[in-house]
Amino acid sequence: AEDKREFPADFLWGGAVAAHQIEGAYQEGGKGLAITDLFTLGDKDHPRKITETIEASEYYPEHVASDFYHRYPEDIKLLAEMGFKCFRTSISWPRIFPQGDELEPNEAGLKFYDDVFDECLKYGIEPIVTLSHFELPLHLVQEYGGWRDRRLIEFFARFAEVCFKRYHNKVKYWMTFNEINNQTNFEVSGHLYTNSGIVPEAGEDREKLMYQAAHYELVASAQAVQIGHQIDPEMQVGAMIAMCPIYPLTAKPEDILFAQRAMQTRYWFADVHANGFYPRWMKHFFAKKGFDLDITAADLKQLQAGTVDYIGFSYYMSFATKYQGQADFNENRDLVDNPYVKTTEWGWQIDPVGLRYALNWFTDRYHLPLFIVENGMGAYDQLTEDHQVHDDYRIKYMQDHIIQMKRAVLDDGVKLLGYTPWGCIDLVAHGTGEMSKRYGFIYVDSDDHGHGTFDRYRKDSFFWYKNVIASNGAEL
Ligand code: P53
């Protein structure tokens, strides 16, 4: 890449993780169970199971994860060595409210994140924090049916308020719900459960459940934005959207129209977050479907009053779709392979140009600053005898994406706050539970079953990314 231009001087280079995928220590410090503590190990052909109780015959990768809970000083020191300006993680909700519905928080949990954030700040690394990254307290599922229940709005608002009050001097950039729009694919039970803690009963309309839960989450998010601004007007509270642009497979007008509806269906969550109201098509859609959702006038006021300050988003891949007479877009049914792009070993379409497309699309639609809070490629790595990892494939993926990001910022004028590639320290893959589906610059010596020394090693990409940051993106 011969584009030697630099990014803006204040650009936030960093990396991202999530509490449940990296911390482990699932029963330490007074933590309650999170829904993800009952996800078993799967692989690309076998989905993870969700068990009702912890079974001795099953393996639950999140219980140990990368042991960040005990090793964070060493990990953050390595991030500092790479020159990180920021580090995105989440606050595990059940570390702060073990059951989710208590009135008083758990001090040991609060103290843990104070320590993590202080360790970052010691090196000038700015923590970027997601409040809810699939870490719903299990009790809220068992007692309330997850986000089926309006009372979760209150529980989430209390959690947000406690975190904002405690950390507002240490954390400026927050996000409310990680990839809130993954549940667009409501037919895949894993999405409805990880986003909303919902287990549909036989005969229940999953689609309606999804819209109701998402509504409550969006109201809770809007409340959190308002609470955050009251506590500290400097605080920036954002959305977190999983951005997979959905292209029409051909230029046939019917395909174009259908892809437009697909985008509306997958990204209305961002419309509500950013605009503060539901897009017009949805009223007709709900009426057509006969959904009588619990959406009150007071809720609509909340949405309007709590619009987000920026859009955080993940970008891994793009999708494509084709019109075949469908009445509505159904993500589980209507995606087709794009013949112009390659895929990863897990079948994710690799599309760097789609990142520039996404950055422009968000900018035109919302006129807000953007933050790429996840990007990367899961891959099997080989640790050599002398503890090296030659991950040129990872470097290539990131080079290609950063080039497009650079063009969006410098040629298209997109306001981009920063870039935090996913899983900067190896962690448990969310979709499959595999440790061997790796994203990191830092190798963690553990296998899918948690066997290993858990020692950390610098991959080739570690040295490459260090130079990217040092040159502010001039040297890719
Ligand atoms: P894993 C679907 C599509 C895009 C991103 O995924 C997704 C998902 C759900 O799996 O999830 C995000 O680990 C999520 C992270 C996750 C990461 O992508 O399955 O925010 O928690 O680890 C990568 O390879």
Automatic annotation (TrEMBL):
Annotated active site: 374 (nucleophile)
UniProt-listed Gene3D superfamilies: Glycosidases
Keywords (A to Z) from UniProt: Glycosidase, Hydrolase
MF GO annotations: beta-glucosidase activity
Pfam families: Glyco_hydro_1 (PF00232)
Protein name, per record: 6-phospho-beta-glucosidase
Organism: Ligilactobacillus salitolerans
Database matches in InterPro entries: GH, GH_1_N_CS, Glyco_hydro_1, Glyco_hydro_1_AS
Similarity comment: family membership: Belongs to the glycosyl hydrolase 1 family.
